[in-house]
Please model this.
Amino acid sequence: MNVGVCYAQVDRQLWMRLEVPDNSTIEETINLSGVLKLYPEINLSSQKVGIFGKIAPLDTAVKDGDRVEIYRQITADPQMVQRRRR
Model:
């Protein structure tokens, strides 16, 4: 299966496509991508992951064409950001 993996930091983004075996999980896909070696600060036990913007557990099976996303922790209060924009 061909899937994508993405991870974004404040100053740079990673987007890659890779082939994974059928019935691979989100966790297996992330491990196969090598993103954990590129970004050692990623902690899958505390950071949320998902597919196409929808949070999902690490044991969720991926489908051909899925985009696996690793989400960063929110560093700003969304209400404060909204107030600054006004």
Q: What stands out?
A: The mean pLDDT is 90. The two ends are 45 Å apart (CA to CA).
